[in-house]
């Protein structure tokens, strides 16, 4: 089967400007996870963006690499875990949880294991 993996982030903006910037980032994930419309391809939906997900820094040498993947879902939860709904003065949320779920587009093959050696492919988590 194709491997699936997810990333979860919790944002705690310091002000409404930062909250708006976070919402702009979320918009980009949502937009690029969706297929293109039929008006762009002669009546057919186009394939969503294919992502190259990578870890950076020293950590990347010690974990399994990812193959190309599509972003299957973008889930956003505002003020999750708070006892009450809280916002800045302009209504922007004070806490934003983002969950990104990816699915690789290529299978992990035997040669892939030999290529990465000790890092291995351990199920995508």
Q: Provide mean pLDDT, rounded.
A: 87
What structural category characterises the helix and strand content? Answer: alpha+beta
The fraction of residues in strands falls at: 15-25%
Task: Report the order of strands and helices.
Answer: EHEEEH
The geometry reads as flat
Oligomer: single chain
Biggest beta-sheet profile: 4 strands, antiparallel
Order of the strands making up the biggest sheet: 1-4-3-2
Distance between the termini: 15 Å
Offer a concise description of the structure.
With 125 residues, this protein is α+β, with helices and mostly antiparallel strands.
Features:
four-stranded antiparallel β-sheet, 125 residues, 2 helices, alpha+beta, 20% helix, 23% strand
């Amino acid at each position: 089967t194709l491997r699936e993996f997810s990333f979860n982030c919790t944002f705690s903006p310091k002000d409404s400007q930062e909250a708006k910037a976070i919402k702009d980032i979320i918009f980009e994930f949502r937009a690029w996870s969706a297929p293109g419309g039929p008006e762009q391809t002669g009546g057919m939906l186009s394939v969503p963006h294919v992502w190259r997900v990578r870890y950076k820094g020293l950590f990347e040498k010690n974990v399994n690499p990812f193959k190309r993947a599509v972003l299957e879902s973008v889930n956003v939860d505002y003020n999750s875990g708070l006892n009450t709904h809280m916002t800045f003065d302009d209504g922007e949320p004070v806490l934003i949880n983002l969950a990104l779920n990816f699915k690789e587009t290529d299978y992990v093959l035997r040669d892939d294991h030999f290529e990465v050696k000790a890092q291995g492919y351990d199920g995508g988590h």
